[in-house]
Amino acid sequence: MESSVVDIQQLSYRYERSLVLDDVNLTIRPGSFLGLVGPNGSGKSTLIKCILGLLKPKDGSVRLFDTDVGDFTNWEKIGYVSQKANRFNAGFPATVFEVVSMGLFGQIGLFRFPKKKHRTYVYEALDIVGMKDFARQPIGRLSGGQQQRIFIARALVSQPQLLILDEPTVGVDANAAQHFYDLLARLNNEHGLTLLLVSHDVGTLTRYVSDVACLNQHLHFHGSKEAFAKNPDLSALYGHDVQHIVHEHGEVAP
Ligand code: ADP
């Protein structure tokens, strides 16, 4: 097994003149559930784009599964659910099955019919997110929370080892968000999937993750959520009394 899923060393990134990431070092170990937190504009999305190879920093290195991101080709190992995952409107003419199949374009090719094994992958992914019975439904008829599950299924269908989610519960009601986080915890615990979750909702996030990374141009903290909770300055800075939440859930001795 790889020693790390993501290994970022001395990464700096600037858009023209503004330095957005400054000397960031971050290693994500296999099987962890890392919550990336930071205020608006702190560089979270930029960091994700560097991990996904969408931005090419001049300084520092990003390695994915022990390979430099510039040479990395096994993109099916990484699933990504973006904040801007477009919600489909009611008239959108595609079924849930078709939308999830899009996650297999790399394997099937555009405009080809999925083979039996691909159909099996789609149903397995839908089963994991609890939406198997919706396969033949038009995607646009589903609620925001249900569509978000479908986006997860689309990311899972290529059987990734790392799933990256950028603010996935924006616009989803509190009840659906709770189910969604439960699903992520299950993917991590039962399927061993490594998760990187970006969220401004530090309180909810710290209930589920194993580790927390706090970004604001620099990486201010990276460690277990228990260590994060024991640092009241940090947890207050990032918006919540995390100590209280972690104690409430009995995960740290009071
Ligand atoms: P976050 O995801 O934490 O909100 P971002 O990574 O989106 O932060 O943005 C970090 C900073 O970089 C912000 O000040 C933002 O305005 C700036 N920024 C983001 N994208 C661009 C871009 N394409 N060109 C110039 N500046 C950008």
From TrEMBL:
Keywords: ATP-binding, Nucleotide-binding, Transport. The keyword ATP-binding applies. Pfam families: ABC_tran. One of its GO terms (molecular function) is ATP binding. Residues 6-242 form the ABC transporter domain. InterPro entries: AAA+_ATPase, ABC_transporter-like_ATP-bd, ABC_transporter-like_CS, Metal_Ion_Import_ABC, P-loop_NTPase. It comes from the Bacteria. PROSITE patterns: ABC_TRANSPORTER_1, ABC_TRANSPORTER_2. Belongs to the ABC transporter superfamily. PANTHER family: METAL TRANSPORT SYSTEM ATP-BINDING PROTEIN TM_0124-RELATED (PTHR42734:SF17). This is Zinc transport system ATP-binding protein. The lineage of its organism: Bacteria, Bacillati, Bacillota, Bacilli, Bacillales.
